[in-house]
Amino acid sequence: MDRWVGKTAIVTGAASGIGEAITAALLLKKVNVLALDIQAEKLLLASTKWEQIVERGEFCILDCDISEEKDVERAFTLAQTNWGGVDIMVNNAGVINYTRVIESDRAAFERLLNINILATAVFINRAVRSMRQRNVEGHIFNINSVLGHEIPSRFLSEIDGCNGWNLYPTCKHGTVALTHTVRRELAAVKAPIRITSICPGLVHSGIATNSPEVDRILAEIPSLQPQDVADGLMYALGTRPEVQITELVIQRTGEM
Question: Catalytic residue at 235?
Fold first, then answer.
């Protein structure tokens, strides 16, 4: 991990859950972090925790809507101005919807696709450009899901609005495919950049806070902690440059 000391990471969805845990883990290893989230108040609250880390990297927080081009531009400009560019890109931000596809609408579809797939592709594109312009070793992480490999056979609830997965599994299948597509592209151009798909099972991350019924159900199911996902990411980051952890599936022991 010593080679990453003083390097720069961008973490999306950094205000809570997995993103907050990953940011703290990187800072502990003295990596500089630009922490992005659309939840400005939660991001500020998380920053007070990071400030308490005695020996850490520098960090900067930015209220950012990752689906807006101007916000993406602001983020990469800030990383360039503060630290010269980005070396580690963590695409963690995501949204979920528990409404059935057949009972949903175009606005819901667009929100899921724009945030979960399109924004991930844009951040990968911009991060790789920054890394290649400086000819540096880089690492990209896409926080995907086990739902990127399988479609659940049942729903969490029978209550309307809580009885579907909408386009979430579709999006996660897409970002798993995106990861492998980019891996092959990077190999073709012989770039010293690795890319890793991390697919957690159920994580106690607060992703369902906008759906109290689903949040209640998930709270009763044994799950991973955000730190478990952060530990997996740090393991992949710390391997030799010649070693690429292409995909890492992390599930709670006993999870079906």
Answer: no
